[in-house]
């Protein structure tokens, strides 16, 4: 039985573990699997295997996005603080009336 295309398999080799893939690699493979499932070219067993692989790939993408989002959150307050220190302005300061 030939494995579904887009599963990262070549003859005699296992697909890459999702944890070993970059976001782009995992998303590209998941999109390919979705296309194959939706095309109806796969039998029931192959569709199930492709679905399971696709779910694991999308979980990997979600894991990467959460890690990146956390990193951005960590960096954002530091960047805002640096900008305040650099120009002396603060966002919390009340505007001063200079028309007196």
The gyration radius over C-alpha positions equals 24 Å
Shape: elongated
Query: Strand pairing plus helix content: what structural class?
Result: mainly alpha
Count helical runs.
2
Oligomer: single chain
Tags for this model:
100 residues, mainly alpha, Helix Hairpins, 0% strand, disordered N terminus
Structure description:
The chain is built from 2 helices and no strands. By secondary structure, the protein is an all-alpha fold. Helix 1 packs antiparallel against helix 2 (44-87). The chain is elongated.
Outline the fold blueprint.
Elements: H1 23-39, H2 44-87
Helix pairs in contact: 1-2
Task: Offer a concise description of the structure.
With 100 residues, the chain is mainly α. Helix content is 61%, strand content 0%.
């Amino acid at each position: 039985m030939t494995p579904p295309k887009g599963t990262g398999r070549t003859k005699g080799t296992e697909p890459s573990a999702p944890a070993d893939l970059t976001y782009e690699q995992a998303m590209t493979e998941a999109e390919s699997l979705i296309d194959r499932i939706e095309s109806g070219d796969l039998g029931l067993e192959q569709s199930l295997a492709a679905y399971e692989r696709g779910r694991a790939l999308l979980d990997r993408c979600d894991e990467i996005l959460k890690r990146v989002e956390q990193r951005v959150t960590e960096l954002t307050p530091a960047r805002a603080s640096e900008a305040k220190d650099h120009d002396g302005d603060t966002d919390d300061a009340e505007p001063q009336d200079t028309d007196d």
